[in-house]
Amino acid sequence: MAVREIAAWVMVALFGAAGAYCLMAILRVGLGAPPETAAVAAAGFTLTGVVALEVGLGIFFPKQSGAPPDERERLIVARAGHWSGLAFLVGVLPALGHYVTHGDGNVMFHVIVLSLMASGLIEYGAQIVLFRR
Question: What angle do CA 132, 19, 106 make, to 5 degrees?
């Protein structure tokens, strides 16, 4: 298994766990409630996990993690990033529209955070599928 595929598997687990935690926190208080620290903590946990993953890959796979992606990997990352961006856009545009019409920033915040987690899952999940193809 290539290093980028290993990273994608770890990122799917990371975004899945953080996204599920964030979703449960949002559902517990309601979509219109003010943001809880749990949503912000989930984003911080994800950021810390990404940094730890990159450091770990650099330690355990120094040659492979520092190597530039080959042509196939570049196409896979670009395609997965495109799908991820579209998924993020599908969540963000309605959130912004809801804010413009109703002025409720709490709903906008929650929807954007959930869209961010979903787009991360889609990006790295798509990379796994495309690497396996």
Answer: 140
Q: For residue 45, which of 24, 88, 15 has the smallest C-alpha distance? A: 15
- pLDDT, tens digit (0-9, with 9 covering 90-100), for 60-91: 988 887 788 889 889 999 999 999 999 999 99
Instruction: Kindly tell me the sign of the dihedral angle through the C-alpha atoms of 97, 102, 108, 110.
Output: negative
Instruction: Give the SS3 label for residue 103.
Output: coil
The token pair at 100 is: 């413009």
pTM of model > 0.90: no
Cα distances from 109 to residues 12, 30, 56, in angstroms, run 22, 12, 32
Among candidate residues 30, 34, 13, 46, the one with its CA nearest the CA of residue 116: 46
